[in-house]
Design goal:
With 225 residues, the chain is of the alpha+beta class. The strands form 5 sheets. It has a 7-stranded mixed sheet with strand order 2-1-3-8-5-13-16, sandwiched between helices. The chain has a 3-stranded antiparallel sheet with strand order 4-14-15. It has one domain: Spore Coat Polysaccharide Biosynthesis Protein SpsA, Chain A (Alpha-Beta Complex), CATH 3.90.550. The longest helix has 13 residues. The chain is built from 5 helices and 16 strands.
Amino acid sequence: MIDRMSVAICTPSYDGTFGSAYTLGLVALAAHREFAMPYLVSYCSNVALARNKCVHWFLSTEYEHLVFIDADMGYSRTDWQYLMEDDGSEGVCCEYRKKDQVRKIRVQYGLGFARISRRLLEQMALLEREAGGDLLQRFRSEGEEWIDYFPQGVVTGDTWRGEDHGFWLMARLTGLAIRLERRTELMHTGVAHWRYQAADFPDELSPFADAAAPTPAVLPDPTGI
């Protein structure tokens, strides 16, 4: 298992509120001393910027693992333990159900419940374009240079790449091991509760991996990069 005192939980909240399911989960983890430090980003309506704030703070610390848990995510200590399993993966992406009251859609590129190692972030910062120069954009914020780890926008095929999808595609380019975790039973909360169970999606193959969840998974080719 990952050393609990090497883990920082980061949570962006655009309006400063945190769901009751999220809060109950955080209290349970704190009671069992499952992590070292929480870092909350409130009142930032741009989720990509909020996540970059989290990463910028994390890299200024000595913690080794950043865990994103979104403010509208419900989770158990068992879910946490799956996330903390140490199989050598530098990133762990847990699937969960999208907030859709009509369709049953699996979020396959999410950051709602994910673990990212310092090493993965450091290797992403070194990525270069074929013609030379940094692959990840740099920008100025709060008087310092920041790195945009969460690129978003339109890609080949007229599809929109969100900040979470953009992160995992860039992470794949490092060649480091990334695990898809499907054993968790996360709950996406809002006007209703959307609980994820892998068995609910028997006919839908994940583009991350094919079979066993505990093994390192290979992400799809980063078309459009």
